[in-house]
Design goal:
Structural class of chain A: alpha+beta
Order of helices and strands of chain A: EEH
Number of helices of chain A: 1
Oligomer: heterodimer
Largest sheet of chain A: none
Radius of gyration of chain A: 17 Å
Helix content of chain B: 10-25%
Radius of gyration of chain B: 19 Å
Largest sheet of chain B: 6 strands, mixed
Number of strands of chain B: 14
Shape of chain A: rod-shaped
Structural class of chain B: alpha+beta
Strand content of chain A: 25-35%
Amino acid sequence: RTYRMPKEVRVEPHKFAAELIHRL
Amino acid sequence: VASSVLFPCKFTSFGCGLTLSPAEKPEHEELCEFRPYSCPCPGTCCHWQGQLNAVMHHLTSHHRPITTVQGEDVIFLATNIHITGAIDWVMMQACFGHHFLLILQKMDKYEGYRQYFAFVQLIGTRNEADKFNYRMELNSPPRRMAWEARVRSIHEGIAATIRNSDCLVFDTDIIEFFAVSGSLGINVTIS
């Protein structure tokens, strides 16, 4: 049985727009 | 008189053939499969709407590049996890012939208390999304925290998912158990 390590992906942060916060 | 008359769904021009009473109409229109899709990119004020088959083109041509990886298992490594303010981290996972959006959002609830919400959305219809589950796991032996749920469609939006905490939710204290050098690895499996 072979086990494949899942690929690691670096994801950078992104600042929200204020409008979205108000909608939530 | 109006309550005895059937009115067409407001998405008639998009292909919906239903007629409904005034009482049924708002609820149907909220869930109507013919309702145009909104832009699924979180953290933007994009007002784009269109058909499902145009969503991918819109995302790739009008928004910041979103990293896409192939496979059912990935490790979503969110960097700079302690950055202040309302933040999102987004990537795309491609498997089973579909594209899935992996979203992590952080909200500062009050001074010093932050909440994180992580979930998966299918770029597809609700019926297609019903066929998939996802599992998200934070792992730092001996501690482990996991969440399993049905994949949501981008047609359902993200506001209700976050408002109802219908996703992997954790806070400032929990994250300290799992973050390493300011990055948080989330194992994501779609099945």
